[in-house]
Amino acid sequence: QNPKTSAIVKQLVAEGNAGELQKYFGSRMEFGTAGLRAAMGAGISHMNDLTIIQTTQGFCRYLEKNFSDLKKRGVVIGFDARAHLSSGGSSKRFARLAANTFISQGVPVYLFSDVTPTPFVPYTVTHLKLCAGIMVTASHNPKQDNGYKVYWENGAQIISPHDRGISQAIEENEEPWPQAWDDKLIDSSLLLHDPYATVNKDYFKDIQKQCFHRNINKETNLKFVHTSVHGVGHKFVQLAFKAFDLSPPFAVPEQKDPDPEFPTVKYPNPEEGKGVLTLSFALAEKDGAKIILANDPDADRLAVAEKQESGEWKVFSGNELGALLGWWIFTCWKNNNRDTCAIKDVYMLSSTVSSKILRAIALKEGFHFEETLTGFKWMGNRAKQLMDQGKAVLFAFEEAIGYMCCPAVLDKDGVSAAVITAEMASFLATRNLSLSQQLKAVYDEYGFHVTKASYFICHDPKVIQQLFDNLRNFDGKNTYPKSCSRFKVSGIRDLTTGYDSSQPDQKAILPTSKSSQMITFTFANGGVATMRTSGTEPKIKYYSELCAPPGNSDVEQLKRELDELVNALEKHFFQPEKNNLQRKTE
């Protein structure tokens, strides 16, 4: 019933454009553990009014089956500022249609009245003890995309078997229910609540539990620049700084207000490198700021850059900032917990493709470190399990600039990470240390961890399948590579098939998933490299790391060796020319 998408389809039918119609209606978007992520547009392969209604009907029926008190507790729905003029889709409209679906079945809905960072949805689920949460966002994807992210009652993103259960329920509820399209009905409903004011108050109160140096914050001369890259982060990071008694950061004026066109950047993703930060560098130079904090558009990720003494800007990798925040959060915990026995209940987590620096810190300091599969859905769910057992999960991170610094949010949170980074930098400044100098001190103490990650773009699933099949049948059937150029392979873990050469029974410990590709190679020189497919983008990613024991200070030699290993990996395992893969460009 959306006139714009309807008109697009009618036009294609009139033109007899079977190819385009096949693209729109050939296959339904797949609902996975990351929910939905696709371009906005017409047809069942895109995000639009109809597919949102169908998805929410399925999700509603699935929740009814799982929660006898759904009609008492309800769900929360948040949205970012994305909008797509040609198809009439927008995050706000999708959120309202989803709310209408639940309300039509007598389920209370806590619908944010304005745009909100993604972490506010999982926060609200646990804070208000709701059954589930939905965030309508495509995070840092290109502007035409949107997404539908789902949280369970524990405040973490869903994991299997919920994705399959919801997917099946969607297929059983494709016919829109009566009044499904009429989202105006919710405005007069007693089941509609707006959690905006409460959550804004309580969230900023809760993150103050991670504020340990208020006096330093009040007096610091350190200046910060913040960019929200045309997303939702500006207002919330300003409030977070206020909650920590820090002077507000300078906001990049051209990027501080939400704009679905993302006019000043090619990709609205701070992970993509310095190109996204051009305006931030200029403002920092003008205002004399030493540190830049950049959120992605839904403010669940954080990139950090620091001006070096040479005048150059260093953009920290996700692993480097993970090392700094891990060190900082543990140091703050240690200074506030004199009871030496308490450390046996302290945990930190990171994903299996992230740097193992937290493992090195944990080994030396005596707390626990665990790795999980890639993605915060795994870390959030594991953190909740540990917390339910009375453990303290201080920190979790993944190399894709995602950080969970505060136990009130069981997902990555770029708002709390930004203000905690600012407090850490302010504290270090009182010791005449920069973030870069402290990072070197962390590596000096716990051992250098040199990492390198990148990706290739490939739009053909058959090519991706073939590439991974070749690795599994390298020298004949069911044989993996024994070397990569001069680098001897000493171990293989394949989380698609469940094989792990390092285990006595050759079975992997981490959960396996046949629907995504992921192979990790361990090399005789101590290097580790993982190749995997992305769940939300047409990319084959790789992650590599070389670690040295504490005291080995020849970091340049480590970097050279890792560069050589990565070049060999690209040439022999990816074979970009043969497979027609497109390299990541700045």
TrEMBL record:
<dbReference type="Pfam" id="PF02879">
    <property type="entry name" value="PGM_PMM_II"/>
</dbReference>
<keyword id="KW-0413">Isomerase</keyword>
<dbReference type="GO" id="GO:0005634">
    <property type="term" value="C:nucleus"/>
</dbReference>
<dbReference type="GO" id="GO:0008973">
    <property type="term" value="F:phosphopentomutase activity"/>
</dbReference>
<dbReference type="InterPro" id="IPR005841">
    <property type="entry name" value="Alpha-D-phosphohexomutase_SF"/>
</dbReference>
<feature type="domain" description="Alpha-D-phosphohexomutase alpha/beta/alpha">
    <location>
        <begin position="202"/>
        <end position="307"/>
    </location>
</feature>
<dbReference type="InterPro" id="IPR016066">
    <property type="entry name" value="A-D-PHexomutase_CS"/>
</dbReference>
<dbReference type="GO" id="GO:0000287">
    <property type="term" value="F:magnesium ion binding"/>
</dbReference>
<dbReference type="InterPro" id="IPR005845">
    <property type="entry name" value="A-D-PHexomutase_a/b/a-II"/>
</dbReference>
<dbReference type="GO" id="GO:0005737">
    <property type="term" value="C:cytoplasm"/>
</dbReference>
<dbReference type="InterPro" id="IPR005844">
    <property type="entry name" value="A-D-PHexomutase_a/b/a-I"/>
</dbReference>
<protein>
    <submittedName>
        <fullName>PGM2 protein</fullName>
    </submittedName>
</protein>
<comment type="similarity">
    <text>Belongs to the phosphohexose mutase family.</text>
</comment>
<keyword id="KW-0963">Cytoplasm</keyword>
<dbReference type="InterPro" id="IPR036900">
    <property type="entry name" value="A-D-PHexomutase_C_sf"/>
</dbReference>
<dbReference type="GO" id="GO:0006166">
    <property type="term" value="P:purine ribonucleoside salvage"/>
</dbReference>
<dbReference type="Pfam" id="PF02880">
    <property type="entry name" value="PGM_PMM_III"/>
</dbReference>
<feature type="domain" description="Alpha-D-phosphohexomutase alpha/beta/alpha">
    <location>
        <begin position="318"/>
        <end position="446"/>
    </location>
</feature>
<dbReference type="GO" id="GO:0006006">
    <property type="term" value="P:glucose metabolic process"/>
</dbReference>
<keyword id="KW-0460">Magnesium</keyword>
<keyword id="KW-0119">Carbohydrate metabolism</keyword>
<dbReference type="InterPro" id="IPR016055">
    <property type="entry name" value="A-D-PHexomutase_a/b/a-I/II/III"/>
</dbReference>
<dbReference type="InterPro" id="IPR005846">
    <property type="entry name" value="A-D-PHexomutase_a/b/a-III"/>
</dbReference>
<feature type="domain" description="Alpha-D-phosphohexomutase alpha/beta/alpha">
    <location>
        <begin position="29"/>
        <end position="175"/>
    </location>
</feature>
<keyword id="KW-0479">Metal-binding</keyword>
<keyword id="KW-0597">Phosphoprotein</keyword>
<keyword id="KW-0313">Glucose metabolism</keyword>
<dbReference type="Pfam" id="PF02878">
    <property type="entry name" value="PGM_PMM_I"/>
</dbReference>
